[in-house]
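The freezer alarm interrupted the setup, so I double-checked each line after restarting. Inputs confirmed:
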Amino acid sequence: MRYAETDQMGVAYHGNYFAWFEIGRTDLLRSQGVSYKELEAQDVHLPVIAAQARFVRPAHYDDVLEIRTQVTAVSGARVTFAYEVRRGGDFVLATGSTSHAAVDGRGRARRLPELLRRLLA
Amino acid sequence: MRYAETDQMGVAYHGNYFAWFEIGRTDLLRSQGVSYKELEAQDVHLPVIAAQARFVRPAHYDDVLEIRTQVTAVSGARVTFAYEVRRGGDFVLATGSTSHAAVDGRGRARRLPELLRRLLA
Amino acid sequence: MRYAETDQMGVAYHGNYFAWFEIGRTDLLRSQGVSYKELEAQDVHLPVIAAQARFVRPAHYDDVLEIRTQVTAVSGARVTFAYEVRRGGDFVLATGSTSHAAVDGRGRARRLPELLRRLLA
Amino acid sequence: MRYAETDQMGVAYHGNYFAWFEIGRTDLLRSQGVSYKELEAQDVHLPVIAAQARFVRPAHYDDVLEIRTQVTAVSGARVTFAYEVRRGGDFVLATGSTSHAAVDGRGRARRLPELLRRLLA
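Predicted 3D structure, all chains:
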């Protein structure tokens, strides 16, 4: 965890967890052979339409964090990811989820590519 | 909205809304005569224990945003705020809420000061 | 200053000043009748090619900051802004500058629009 | 590079480089057996008193970046680091430097610990 991500309580500012969730889902997609960068190049964008988190224990500067991510729902045009942020494998610091709509570059709804839907199912 | 808050979709990165919510509750507290800075000086801290948001319409660079905040629950040691982020008074861009525990500087639970509880009730 | 902008030293993280400088130059442009958003719509982008800052006194949460900005150099394809971040009008917290190249949406050098050059001169 | 770090030009927002520089110097210190976290626990803080950067090529989402860091000056109470941000080992995206004063928790100047000075020399 970066110094830039601390706040004056000496812990990670809660807003940063949503950027960490993004790292988690990017890594999950990549582990399935999907590059989010390439998805965007194919005009598939997955903006966040809902996000939530529960903060159980604080994260501190220099903590090594692990983000565990799984897909909890996938439909024609939506996908939901769930996350656990852990320290040292042992302690859950936070849990959360994000829901995403598939849209094109103009923000119009589109279907998730079949391949992506199958990979995530 | 700041250029720093955009992402490559050309809209506000969703993680930034949680910092905007913070501006909303700081302003609400201040309108009730409570300075969050002074609360902290009295060893009352209100870390976020849960946060959620729904993103309805994107915010764009240079948009003038309004954050409407209200207290939706207050108990001995907890308080919950609800938010609406609006543009131009007309369009709701996002809604959300944050729940906070009252703790001292060491992170131990403490009661919300009576005055604060009354103000927020 | 936002809570999100503090770090665990209890002061503003130095990287945030560059986002504040951006607010300063946006406001300066606007005071000259130039909207940076409209500049971009006309395919004029002003990416930062160099930035520097000196940090004299720390900024604290809830400080009301003022950013004073002036143009210190303008040529066919470049412009440099200088900044002072002040608190309460009295104390200089930081000084800095940013240099910008004019480019089009593909990153190719282009001349600053004549009108902009005249306004900034 | 994180999606959160992009801006609407589709590249890394320049203010983020200063957080990356911080990662570079933390790693350099660690490679010398010095944990910045432990330094702070010993009441040695190294706030940034000056920072500068030159941005040569843009960084894009999902780029794997390398930060090369070296100490360019160290005296009784100050230390300066220089940085190169590279992509793929080949391309320099940015260079920069940060200067730091050694202070205690109250912000008063103090000498760098002898051991640290020797390690960095």
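Quick read of the result. Chain A touches chain C at residues 3-4, 6-11, 13, 15, 61 (CB under 8 Å).
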